[in-house]
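Is PPS placement plausible here? Inputs below.
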Amino acid sequence: MQKIKTIWFFGLSGSGKTTLSTVFSDMIDKDGRKSFLLDGDVIRKGVSNNLGFNKNDRAENVRRIAEICKILITVEIIPIVAAITPYKSNRDKIIEILGRDNLTLIYVDCSLEECEKRDPKNLYQKARMGEIKNFTGISDGFETPSASEYNFRIKTENKSIQQSEIELAELFNKL
Ligand SMILES: Nc1ncnc2c1ncn2[C@@H]1O[C@H](COP(=O)(O)OS(=O)(=O)O)[C@@H](OP(=O)(O)O)[C@H]1O
Ligand SMILES: Nc1ncnc2c1ncn2[C@@H]1O[C@H](COP(=O)(O)OP(=O)(O)O)[C@@H](O)[C@H]1O
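Reply from A.M.:
I modeled the complex. Tokens:
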């Protein structure tokens, strides 16, 4: 990896963002560089704990994460983000804040059906029962990105984590 860029994983809940971004962050650290993982789940417990999941709040959450990335870059730390980033307008905003050349967008592609089957935090089940409102894929939208909206796509459906890790390692070598 030549230049310090933000690596931004986006996709549905349960698609594998946290799993893969953690592996990616370890790869960077093993390479002797410093990275910092910004996971939507964690950010929402602190930096964004006053925000919900309506369209405006998601936009504000994503904006805050992008601004933190900008700061990390000034101290030469590679920001790794794992956030749903559901709308094209969210993705456009990140590009506006960070600049296209300073950003690698990775779409973690997995069907809603499979994410719901995995349901690692039982959130889909709660959303189906109406216990969680505005849940991405169930009661709120996810705008599937066109190919021009990302640099890489990792399909996690029908793949073992080990297979996805191999794909990530290949991707790492391209950066
Ligand atoms: N309504 C609703 N919709 C989607 N997700 C929800 C919701 N409520 C709580 N959660 C939990 O919050 C995590 C997503 O936060 P993000 O910051 O990544 O979302 S966003 O980019 O602002 O849309 C998401 O984490 P992941 O499952 O890792 O994606 C969930 O654990
Ligand atoms: N190929 C794969 N890549 C990533 N995760 C996978 C894969 N196959 C199955 N999984 C499982 O899917 C779930 C993804 O959860 P997580 O990484 O928290 O997703 P997200 O952060 O997108 O919500 C985990 O339980 C993980 O073990």
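Short version: Residues 11, 13-20, 82, 118, 120, 156, 159-161, 164 surround adenosine-5'-diphosphate (ligand 2) (CB under 6 Å).
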